[in-house]
Amino acid sequence: MTHPAARLSDWLYGLTWLCILVMPVVLILLAANGEFSAEALAAAFPDIPVSPDLPNGRTVLVAGLGLSLWVLFGALLWHLQQLFQLFRTGGALTEAAARRIRTIGAFAVALAAAQALVRMLQILVLSSANPPGERVLSIQISGHEVGLIVFGGLLLAIGHVLTEAAAAAAENREFV
Length: 176
What we know:
The chain is mostly helical. It has one domain (4-175). The protein is 77% helix and 0% strand. It contains 5 helices and no strands.
């Protein structure tokens, strides 16, 4: 009989792989649908006055900044997938799993910080072609980002505790 944690890890391993594989397809579909056009970007930031004279290079920069979040999220998914692979093979209480958990926590904190920073930079770039007095610098931190930072911090702490536990377990095995 398979352990329930192993079955859950199998399912989550497959889900993370599916997400990793679907991400580029979604990006291609979004680009083909015109979701990175100046009009679409202006619609995505309805409270920001976007100049109709916004150069194409700045539109590309705004889209590229948004893409950086996809890259960070993809890396986070990959590390999750690697952790679930460790769980599937019985490596849940190992130093490798502890390192992976710490890495996932660090990526979660980085993703939260990057979301706030990227949104600020996107707003700055979108309003940069506006006349003086209509340019915008907006710093926003949502509950989502705060929650992601707390969750990432929790994973960092758990990873450190698990590292100590794995070291103690290895030391105990030497006595036997």
